Amino acid sequence: xxxxxxxxxxxxxxxxxxxxxxxxxxxxxxxxxxxxxxxxxxxxxxxxxxxxxxxxxxxxxxxxxxxxxxxxxxxxxxxxxxxxxxxxxxxxxxxxxxxxxxxxxxxxxxxxxxxxxxxxxxxxxxxxxxxxxxxxxxxxxxxxxxxxxxxxxxxxxxxxxxxxxxxxxxxxxxxxxxxxxxxxxxxxxxxxxxxxxxxxxxxxxxxxxxxxxxxxxxxxxxxxxxxxxxxxxxxxxxxxxxxxxxxxxxxxxxxxxxxxxxxxxxxxxxxxxxxxxxxxxxxxxxxxxxxxxxxxxxxxxxxxxxxxxxxxxxxxxxxxxxxxxxxxxxx
Length: 331
Description:
This protein has helices spanning 18-31, 53-65, 114-120, 134-137, 179-190, 202-210, 267-272, 279-282, 305-317, 322-329; strands at 4-12, 35-41, 44-52, 73-79, 87-91, 110-112, 126-130, 140-142, 170-174, 195-199, 215-217, 219-220, 227-228, 251-253, 262-264. The protein is α/β, with parallel strands linked by helices. The strands form five sheets. The chain has a five-stranded mixed beta sheet, sandwiched between helices. Its EC number is 1.14.-.-.
């Protein structure tokens, strides 16, 4: 067993005071050496975190000890090290950006477990619909699945006409961990689709529990691993290098920050172009140093709830200190 784990989870449930809970949650992660990205919203929680096995066990127990989150399902993967460089715990309006006028706690597509999905995908009356972004499904997707040329889930309404003729089929939606499908499947039901299902736990859980059969390529993930293996039965490489067109599953960001194109680029072309996606980007004056990965960490404001609370108390006793005022407002 490897020393580290990566946890992927979400839960739709009412959180009345997300700002207060964000700080509590953030402090727990700091105290337990966890890194990752967590979104807190009035509609629920969504997170991917990494840490040592014992720290991840403590985190799962912490989440489930709160009655609001007792039903949280975790996708657990082993890893050699932290899958993140930083910790971000943010409050947002939605736990997944969609702007779709639906409430998945009221109505959503029927959840199907990985074993049931494995059987249903061979039904000639079943249609698989990928609810992920273009750059995600280009590196990996289920055989025969319908995909949309969209940047994010907010664009789904613009693509409904592409599948409107399938309203009477059994439509199974899928995504990385299941969260997008909660709203996407609800939206399909609102648009008149009659038999809507969703893969419970998404691609990741299907790979962990059912072997990943018929998933071609790799699954894009939002951490330092970038893309992970899913299919242990009949895997195929479906993506090609953006530069040379050879088969390639290695996703990178262009080293030119003004381009920042997110595409597959093989290791050879990455070295030749110093991480750029073209000769033009290679000569850009602000090209970023290439370390062989093609991943560039964003800047963090290093917000720490404990320091924030301390700074606030100091501010109250020393209101003339501009340094303390700045510190207490950092977020």
